[in-house]
Amino acid sequence: xxxxxxxxxxxxxxxxxxxxxxxxxxxxxxxxxxxxxxxxxxxxxxxxxxxxxxxxxxxxxxxxxxxxxxxxxxxxxxxxxxxxxxxxxxxxxxxxxxxxxxxxxxxxxxxxxxxxxxxxxxxxxxxxxxxxxxxxxxxxxxxxxxxxxxxxxxxxxxxxxxxxxxxxxxxxxxxxxxxxxxxxxxxxxxxxxxxxxxxxxxxxxxxxxxxxxxxxxxxxxxxxxxxxxxxxxxxxxxxxxxxxxxxxxxxxxxxxxxxxxxxxxxxxxxxxxxxxxxxxxxxxxxxxxxxxxxxxxxxxxxxxxxxxxxxxxxxxxxxxxxxxxxxxxxxxxxxxxxxxxxxxxxxxxxxxxxxxxxxxxxxxxxxxxxxxxxxxxxxxxxxxxxxxxxxxxxxxxxxxxxxxxxxxxxxxxxxxxxxxxxxxxxxxxxxxxxxxxxxxxxxxxxxxxxxxxxxxxxxxxxxxxxxxxxxxxxx
Length: 475
Description:
Blueprint: E1 21-28, E2 34-36, E3 41-49, E4 56-63, H1 67-71, E5 78-84, E6 94-109, E7 114-122, H2 124-130, E8 134-142, H3 157-165, E9 173-176, E10 179-180, E11 183-190, H4 192-200, E12 204-205, E13 214-219, E14 222-227, H5 228-232, E15 239-242, H6 256-260, E16 265-270, H7 274-280, E17 284-291, E18 296-303, H8 304-308, E19 339-343, H9 367-380, E20 384-391, E21 401-411, E22 417-419, E23 425-437, E24 442-450, H10 465-473
Parallel strand pairs: 9-14, 15-21, 17-19
Antiparallel strand pairs: 1-2, 1-5, 3-4, 3-23, 4-7, 5-6, 6-7, 8-11, 10-12, 13-14, 16-20, 17-18, 20-24, 21-22, 21-23, 23-24
Helix pairs in contact: 3-4
């Protein structure tokens, strides 16, 4: 995006916010035929999500020549999609092959002279993962994930699964973040993507980031293994705003950049839900970890107040000012709201009858870290959720951050609207849907979330007699 490009200007790229270039949509059949679908396409939708392993989507086609019968589609076909925001060939953001896995929504039009049907597609790795299972041991003490270009001997477990079990090419890997600590694991007959998901619950991010908030996902740029906290630290991709629609003034031009960063519509998906956050362990939770070898147990308490003092965040202030209930217990101290019990192996190598026999017990899996923290971190990552409809942007992917400016309903003394300090701020893009329609429109739907706020939320005054009266008399 460029600030100096204006509607009606001489740019060889885009002229209007919803411009795009759909170069081709082609089917490659198992018999070696190539069928061009560009002019049969009614709608193309592509999905990315940081909580989903792969990119997927669908294309709706109108058919008057019996493609289904002629092509004999059976699920062994591939779909190539080439599109982008700019008319410049070098700026086409997406050129990818997908596996067609299903045909659906087939229905006749008119007097059965033509029909609509939908082809559903996904990345090849999803189908490959469904076709095999891994039974493999990693006993030499491996990182769960190492740097993308690590040597074979230093390759992390997730790197090994991607490259050696799923045969993922290096060019399809975007960012793999290194994780802290080494582990001994035996993968017990899990599908490759299931194994990555399982390992991610144990993984702890590097660079002094707290907890266990690693996520595996794919975007149009490739596969990623990232910490939520590292995603939060990214510079915002752009600042989007929702305000009354722009109107041309005589002799003035509206900048293309302003059009591209205007939110066409938005929806509140989730704000706060105190009951859910309490029962899910977002504010506080407790782990009882039992060591059957030493016959001891340990209690680990997670407190949101302590966590926010150490963790990276999108915005500078916590989402609550912790209140006290009538028993004098703060929200961030109600540990019994979410209680978990887990078998742990912490410090087993220090036991008297073990420490002289190195390797006789597994390396510490740090259950006391990954269970309490991950429980809260995943819930916090979706504390406030919005959906934004913006002009299509093929360069905007899941996992990026944006700024969102929402103007308040309240005006100041000069009748100027200020920013809504609760819903405005920095957000993480958790999901993206790109929609291209044959009518010429290209729009992107973003699901964005944040776990912190710009404004400072004050805690209720526990010493106030009026506050105490209300708490005690609450019905």
